[in-house]
Design brief:
Elements: H1 4-9, H2 15-23, E1 25-29, H3 33-37, H4 58-66, E2 72-78, H5 107-117, E3 121-126, H6 140-155, E4 162-165, H7 182-192, E5 197-200, E6 206-207, E7 222-224, H8 230-236, E8 266-268, E9 271-276, H9 294-304, E10 309-314, H10 325-341, E11 344-345, E12 351-354, E13 375-376, E14 385-402, E15 411-420, E16 423-430, E17 437-456, E18 461-462, E19 464-469
Parallel strand pairs: 1-2, 1-10, 2-3, 3-4, 4-5, 6-9, 9-10
Antiparallel strand pairs: 7-8, 11-19, 12-14, 13-18, 14-17, 14-19, 15-16, 15-17
The protein binds beta-L-fucopyranose (FUL).
Length: about 475
């Protein structure tokens, strides 16, 4: 006991997890029966006749989301009401019995085609909890049904970057109880879409634990494997549409040395922050003027993408079948605002010096390269330091650090200083870095920066360090 952190330091991400992490910011599109019934959770009894987008335009979705700075989208192909947005062979409760394109339409096809056309990643949300399907709650029969549907989605719509399984279930104590064949679902996905991550009720991506848009201050991607158990996930997921999980309900420390004491088994299980641009997940006209402010969205962005988590921001298309202009405009402003934050790159002509380098292929100059090369300290360097010379006095208000997570997550504590009249002055004192840590502070003017790695598990690494100034 006491050396759990050594074990944790050896855990690395899979290739699919690495690729997912690089996606950083993408959209959730909640669209389905609830869009037309003005509800959040349907009970599976609403007539397919109600599903009737009058001006459906998937290209418009992708353009609007791309213009918001996002890199992909995840579509709710089937929500808890069981209504399918594709022509499933296994149920009548789908678009085939709706007026949309006289029952000939396939929303999943149109959205996935639009994504591919615009080089946008595409992922699927399929709710395991199904309130329409009769076999739900009977065990094997429902599992066969679910796997059949999954197979349709996994084979007919091109490459998927993510399969999002919701842990929510509102059946309650006396409701139906379905034993899900999780391992069967997962092996089907691995076989048919080996590059897709399985998120939330799955082994690849961890739900941050709330729907308020915040992750932990110290978000570890390596956690004890118990956090990936389906039982644990179900217990912490939503049980009613009235009360979304809040931040105060989540466990605040999953991965620190203290938190992992006495644990034996660790996994790479990075966090995703899921939050909606509107109060609800589905479109409701009466929420048209209740969008989160740009300031709030920007804060969410920095506190997720900038704090070692990915951000899935829900933008629900409206009853016409388009992303509402209000949301599209907001996304446009958000992208502009974030671009302004990274207006000047102050590390363009910079040089770096390190207290140690493992060898010449792990030189500190690698932190400014765009490729996969990275810096690594010597094993006997207890408190490695990097000094960045900015090539003259520069004003800056941000430093973006990235560990080389392909070799694990190592940094536990670090401090950043700037040179003020020949003395080092502290500007940032923080915990984990992980994939990305965006440190923001009031603008300073200086020609040098020092990064000190105060506590690391394995050897400190940096894939990249960039210094920015925002435009006023
Ligand atoms: C929750 C669901 O119950 C909500 O309706 C929504 O889909 C959200 C992303 O997950 O658990």
């Amino acid at each position: 006991m006491g050396d759990e952190w050594i074990k944790a330091s050896a855990v690395v991400p899979s290739k699919r997890q690495l690729n997912w992490q690089k996606t950083e910011f993408y959209a959730f599109c909640h669209f389905g029966m609830n869009t037309f019934t003005d509800r959040e959770w349907g009970d599976g009894t609403d007539s397919p006749e109600l599903f009737n987008p009058t001006d459906f335009d998937a290209d418009q979705w992708v353009s609007a989301l791309k213009n918001g700075g996002m890199r992909g989208l995840v579509l709710t192909c089937k929500h808890h009401d069981g209504f399918c947005l594709w022509q499933s062979k296994y149920t009548d409760y789908s678009v085939k019995n709706s007026p949309y394109k006289n029952g000939e339409g396939d929303i999943v096809k149109e959205v996935s085609d639009a994504c591919r056309k615009q080089n946008f990643k595409f992922g699927i949300y399929v709710s395991p909890w199904d309130r329409h399907e009769k076999t739900y709650g009977t065990g094997a029969a429902y599992n066969i049904y679910f796997k059949n549907q999954l197979e349709e989605l996994l084979t007919n719509y091109g490459e998927l970057f993510c399969v999002w399984f919701d842990g929510a279930c509102g059946e309650g104590e006396n409701g139906k109880k379905q034993e899900y064949d999780w391992q069967g679902y997962y092996s089907l996905i691995r076989r048919l879409q080996p590059d897709a991550v399985i998120s939330i009720s799955g082994p690849d991506v961890r739900w941050c634990g709330n729907e308020a848009g915040v992750c932990r201050k110290s978000e570890w991607s390596v956690v004890p494997s118990e956090f990936c158990s389906n039982l644990y996930i179900a217990e912490h997921s939503q049980k009613s549409d009235k009360k979304p999980p809040e931040k105060k309900e989540m466990t605040l420390d999953l991965g620190s040395r203290k938190a992992i004491k006495g644990k034996n088994d660790f996994i790479w299980y990075p966090a995703e922050v899921d939050v909606s641009i509107r109060p609800g997940w589905f479109y409701h006209e009466n929420e048209d003027y209740k969008l989160k402010s740009i300031k709030k969205l920007e804060e969410i962005y920095f506190n997720s993408v900038g704090a070692n988590a990915n951000l899935i921001l829900n933008v629900p298309p409206d009853t016409t079948g388009k992303i509402n202009q209000i949301d599209a405009l907001e996304l446009d402003s958000l992208r502009r605002r974030i671009e302004k934050e990274f207006y000047y790159c102050r590390s363009e002509n910079a040089h770096a010096f390190a207290s140690s380098e493992k060898d010449s292929s792990h030189a500190v100059k690698n932190i400014f390269s765009d490729d996969d090369s990275f810096w690594q300290s010597e094993s006997d360097d207890e408190k490695p330091e990097i000094i960045i010379d900015l090539d003259g006095q520069k004003v800056f208000d941000k430093i973006v650090l990235m560990e080389n997570i392909a070799t694990g997550q190592q940094v536990e504590k670090f401090t950043v200083f700037y040179d003020r009249g020949g003395k080092w002055k502290k500007i940032v004192k923080s915990t984990v870095i992980g994939y990305k840590r965006i440190c923001r502070f009031s603008a300073v003017k200086s020609s040098k920066i020092k990064i000190r790695f105060d506590l690391c598990r394995g050897k400190a690494t940096l894939l990249s360090a960039q210094i920015y100034q925002s435009k006023d």
